[in-house]
Amino acid sequence: MNFTDTAISDIDGLIEKSWTAFHQYRKLPLSARATFMRTIAEEMDLAGDDLIATAMRETNLPEARLKSERNRTMFQLRSYGEAAERGDWLEAIIDTADDARNPPKPDIRKMLVPLGPVVVFGASNFPFAYSTAGGDTACAFAAGCSVIVKAHPAHPGTSAIVAEAIHKAISRCGLPEDLFIHVYGAGTETGKTLVTHPKVKAVGFTGSYTGGKALFDWANQRKEPIPVFAEMSSVNPVFLFPDQLKKNTEQTAEWYGGSITLGVGQFCTNPGLLIGIAGDDLDRFTALLGKKINSTSPGKMLHQGIANAYHEKKQTALSQKGNELVAESEVKAAADEAEATLAHTVADTFISNPVLHQEIFGPYSLVIACKDEKEMQKVAAGLEGQLTATLMATENDIRNNEELVETIKNLCGRLIVNGVPTGVEVCLAMQHGGPFPATTDSRFTSVGADGIKRFARPLAFQSWPDSLLPDELKNANPLGIIRTVNNEPTKNSLIK
Amino acid sequence: MNFTDTAISDIDGLIEKSWTAFHQYRKLPLSARATFMRTIAEEMDLAGDDLIATAMRETNLPEARLKSERNRTMFQLRSYGEAAERGDWLEAIIDTADDARNPPKPDIRKMLVPLGPVVVFGASNFPFAYSTAGGDTACAFAAGCSVIVKAHPAHPGTSAIVAEAIHKAISRCGLPEDLFIHVYGAGTETGKTLVTHPKVKAVGFTGSYTGGKALFDWANQRKEPIPVFAEMSSVNPVFLFPDQLKKNTEQTAEWYGGSITLGVGQFCTNPGLLIGIAGDDLDRFTALLGKKINSTSPGKMLHQGIANAYHEKKQTALSQKGNELVAESEVKAAADEAEATLAHTVADTFISNPVLHQEIFGPYSLVIACKDEKEMQKVAAGLEGQLTATLMATENDIRNNEELVETIKNLCGRLIVNGVPTGVEVCLAMQHGGPFPATTDSRFTSVGADGIKRFARPLAFQSWPDSLLPDELKNANPLGIIRTVNNEPTKNSLIK
Lengths: 496, 496
Description:
The structure is a homodimer. The first copy, chain A, is an alpha/beta fold.
């Protein structure tokens, strides 16, 4: 198949159409959004083996992984649609009038309303779950926005099939055709033209720091700046506390051997730093983990560009003074493959060398040996913002290191105890976002239905006649949603 | 009194202290935040007549207004403190584990945690409610942040007394002294140094477009960009629908005569555009309103700079082709005063001249005569983002103009029916924020306890032992807060 870039001169017209579709879609009831999203999931399922085969060819990901990723994507669409309909995310709040007060208190009611057309840039490492009909698109549709997706140049055929599924769902649900627009363009000009268009009102992105930061800057330099949620870069530090490491050396090495190499290390939550206290336990852990790394076969990466970047960044890291190779896959990797790699350094070296703080996208991890907990604290305090951090720790370890644990809390979006960071559960309590540079706005998440709030804003209605209010805010609460009425959460009607 | 600028070289040390205080304060229970905020309110009250007299001298605002603004500020501190303690704003969400699922589902719980030190820039027009201990400071303290306030150069003495009240409250509550830091500096360098410091994590601002936009740009150009909530500029359009205007011409003129001139027009919600349909009713309204304007005495503005800007912008507006003066205060204004002013133009002229769209801070309003509802729609579609919009409309007017009403919904943060935009109720349902340039992020509010969320971000705890979780997320729900447990809002304990 051949995918021609969308002409830059066509983009304005496409976004005008998206703007018109937005104004039709935003007025529809929440239930219509949910039905639409369920229908997209159905159509993705109906796309069948062709979709899986195309994605396998374009991404080098194995069939089982892609099938499970498609299921996850369908679950996202359905569960975010259900959440949209359940209405908690609307943050409906009602403060009733008090005419007896001097001056009289007006009736004020607010709820979230959609921002407008959203541009979505998908990720190469999640061709379904964070691409064309992925989390950002699902959140935008749930919020009531229209969506423009720029197909990822590494999987244009996959993107085309999913786009077709969305269009079939639009047609089956009788929605405006331009509610979803699919654009091709590998160069930066396409992205810039999309993000800087005055009628685009928000951006969702999952990918590299360079890509996300460019979008963020373009969006902020507009006459009317718009919100960008870019999920970019994270090394996901793991803190190996002494009590836990002593008791569970083998299991920890086992778990992390798996987590570092899962999916050829191509996850944004891949654990890139293993921070422990120098000594026999850490040595034994490093040796055991090294064995696991040695025996891991190299794997084909998503595309040649990502493989090149891996080899280059790994080389740069290993050429830094004081950063030593511990283990690599014993089988030599081909040019489009990545070999698992474990390196080792000491805290001082790490702290003073920013190169070692950078994400190396792929199955690479660095053991950092600290003299003591105090030095662990110094390492933690010097880290940039992260999607996740993990404590391999007993309860005593946590109690005895309060300051360190508080420092770690302050730098990440999700804090795991005795687990691995890979595997991002799709649920309401999930936070997949963190302080910069993990994301561009730590106050939002891109996984879980709370991600809908990225694309919505509160609108307050003051002194409106009940019959003209949106159903969400009417006295009778016809939708039966949770609302905060005079500071008290309730699903009750206001009519006594 | 003499207020020396804080030396730029001292700022780094002050922010380091704020950072240390933040890490102590953030760990305290919600109840400690509420007690602290109540104590600040008490101390503001105890500051007594001296505070009011100083503010009168520095702002030219009358005693009654300042006394009521102090009460409002104390109410904000108390009610946001109560909200902090009530805990709804934490958005506590729990998804419990499911070991039977394959793969097992981990236990994940999230809640909002504070961002870090917040820099607050107060407003000249609200020396109490949006200044030193105003809404932004109250929200930041409620969120668990430390605060650095740059005193407004137009009321340094007022700011000093309020800062002293905060310090007394800190001392009475046994909190770290540097939880609140007060800085002077009239030049831009002080502001820039504060906003670009790596340990400052958010900014709150109320003031001019020029000031807010500069802070926003500095914050986004940092190595680690940080959120800025700047409430900047709004002309608060009022749409005079035909049915309503015909039935209530006199009352509408009466209300708007009051709203335009209230507090010498120095409110961010001052109604600057009155958009109606050309004809006898609009003419009669304009004539009645003109009479009110004629009979309004000029009032002293907050300071000479604001008075100069008013006279200059008014002159520029009235020199635009097709923009006619309708009425002014009959008594001539002194150089530091503003005369109430009403102007008139037609829709075509307004639409094609961006100068007429700009806010003129003060008692100035412009009547825009449209040929029909279709032209009203064109005017609405061409407006920038607004804090408020108002419909003077009967139910029929609203039903008959669905597209127009939808367009208006899309451009503002608060939509009033048959009222005036001045008067911003402090309650949870309030939205005081709107699409750019009204604010820099339409997803947040600076009035009402939801403003706390500007300064907090979600942190998810995965697989934590119950005893080590924050109280907010423990199984027993010891704080009795509302939480969403497995998608259902409840105050129940998880222990059966």
